[in-house]
Amino acid sequence: MNYVTVDAYRIGEFPFWFHQTWTTSLQLCLSLVILFRAVGLATFAALAIIVLTVLCNAPLAKLQHLYQTKLMMAQDERLKACGEALVNMKVLKLYAWEKHFRTVIEKLREVEYTSLRAVQLRKAYNGVLFWSSPVLVSAATFGACYFLKVPLHANNVFTFVATLRLVQEPVRSIPDVIGVVIQAKVAFARIVRFLEAPELQNVQVHGTVAYVSQTAWIQTGSIQCSLVKDLELLPYGDRTEIGERGVNLSGGQKQRIQLARALYQDADIYLLDDPFSAVDAHTATSLFNEYVMEALARKTVFLVTHQVDFLPAFDAVLVDNPNISTLKLIGVYLLIGVGSTVFLLSRGISTVILNMQSSRSLFSQLLISLFRAPMSFYDSTPLGRILSRVSSDLSIVDLDVPFCFIFTVGATSNAYANLGVLAVITWQVLFVSIPMVYLAIRLQKYYFSSAKEFMRINGTTKSYVANHLAESLAGAITIRAFRQEERFFAKNLDLIDKNASPFFHSFTANEWLIQRLETMSAAVLASAALCMVLLPPGTFSSVSIQNQCTLANYIISVERLNQYMHIPSEAPEVIEDNRPPPSWPSVGKVEICDLKIRYRPEAPLVLKGISCTFQGGHKIGIVGRTGSGKTTLIGALFRLVEPAVGKIIVDGIDITKIGLHDLRSRFGIIPQDPTLFNGTVRYNLDPLAQHTDQEIWEVLGKCQLREVVQEKEEGLDSLVVEDGSNWSMGQRQLFCLGRALLRRSRVLVLDEATASIDNATDLILQKTIRTEFADCTVITVAHRIPTVMDCTMVLAIKDGQLVEYDEPMQLMKREDSLFGQLVKEYWSHSQSSESQ
Predict the structure, then answer these.
(1) Which residues have CB under 8 Å from 443's CB, separation 6+?
(2) Which of 148, 477, 736, 763 has its CA 20 to 30 A from that of 654?
(3) What pTM was estimated for this model as a whole?
């Protein structure tokens, strides 16, 4: 992500600043010629100081490159951790791990601060070097004139000072130029390394391919295969916005959209990676018969599945076993130069110190705000928009804002100080200066009205690029399988062009302003010859206005960060006056009273007045068709969404009256989408380091993962890559079981936990739960009917309403029972599969 949001931005800045390198050099050469005509051989003293300045900068430029590279690497690590946490924020909240992951990111940020501090100190050094050089050049030249007996008359002194002022601002801009060039060089090198990385090899396939992944990949947009009923329930049918990654859809609906997408492809070969595990038995049978057996009857189909009931229908099965005297005046001038240098040095160091403090405070507040944001924020905000804040905007605040601010203050103070001195000595200058300042301010305001919007649009369009990139990376396999790379490349380029447009117009607007300021200054000076003598060039500096405008543009990034620092937060993590007892919940009794849930104030109700009681120690099964509201009920139990009406009471305590951390840390859950984090086996089971290795090995044994981990050379330190992609879906689910075993909660929730594992592993998981959680309240949401058949009670939900709640056998006896209907559909599906 850093390649797109930061490195590409630095390369985009480079062409503008590149021209400063040769224009500054040309201005210096022309100035030296003019100086030689004015002060003769004393010019060589000025040249010596200039050369010495460049030589003093050369070794530190190499160090700047080194630390800039380290800084970008540290940013990569921090952004990777941020992305992983933000993508899996729901899991972090369910496990009450937000504080731990926030601490991990803050530690990575501290590593980044080390490189950032080094980069800023060297940038401050450059600022001192090049801002003090004009004064030191003047002092050295006057000193050389004294010793060489070059007369210092008003005409040549004025020529010298005026010429020096012409190049003063270009010289002072050299630190910015050096910084941009180094940043662009580092960015180029990083992108070249990335582009030269080994790529995937080609596989020869005869015919077109359609692919359906095990984990549904859904893009931001609307729906346009067994979705007829769902489309009727959705408020806008197939044009209903489904949110980023399909957050507004259930797991089964996501899978069916995937299947429909593949069917529209009309390919020759279909690769189906266990797509039926996320739906109930009836829907799975319907999909298999209508999709695989009918729609794909004349197609080549590769189906990866743990549902062996479907296997008889296939042709082949593959089983896988993973005045004063002149001298005195020169001395005073030199003293002023030294004092100026000391001031610049202290200013630079103070800037670095204050910037580090403000940057640390800003990031900390931003991180807390993001981690405390409710799930509704993540459901409605594209991930790319959040990542652009913690990458490109934060990079601008870290690297660009501080020195742009002090250079702006310096240039503006210098301009108005000169104006004030001249107003005291030669008051006539006010007749020219006051109108000029007034016109410049009016012009600046006119520019600001557009420039700020350009930067805001640039930030917004950049988030679209980041969001599209994140979606494309998540669905890379699907995109390649459908041979849609060119379409996604074209879409990405289109988004980049839309992002480049405000970026380009921001620079052109800046040039528009500078041109008019320079023209205005030249016109005033040309029309007032007398004031031209009294008013030295540079008294009113266009560079001062330019710096102010650049700073205002950079402040947009601060504004964007500030927006995310004030996100409405969830309920408090801990309410000190109302903390539950350490042993809570001790019984595990759950009372649901007239519970009504909606995801947004204006949205329709998802749960419509559910009331029931789960007795402590009972095993509760929750069933219903896809999209009926089962997962929403679990979300309400963990307060991922707050009740619109009603309440949930656990062991006599209303869960809305206690802190979220106290609530979520006391419950155990095996979520629908098993999530592993980048790290080790030990870290994924016990990220808070609360358990011994012996306890972890015991849990691995109970989860049937002990042998798998022991076979790996590193044991508990075995690598788990991002998203756990080096472990199978079933193994990831068993990791989640291990987390629940380590936590030992009195209330355990299984949210369709067995959907992605084979029947044998399902039996192991169920046996482990019955043994290890015999006295606990176990709430199971499941599509597989056998999973809930041995439950104490079964709760059936339809369209967000409680249809029935009773013992499984009692429900089976009812003629109009929804549960009985689901059981019949399941066994009918199983028997028809066996007969095939």
Answers:
(1) 513, 516, 517, 520, 545
(2) 736
(3) 0.71
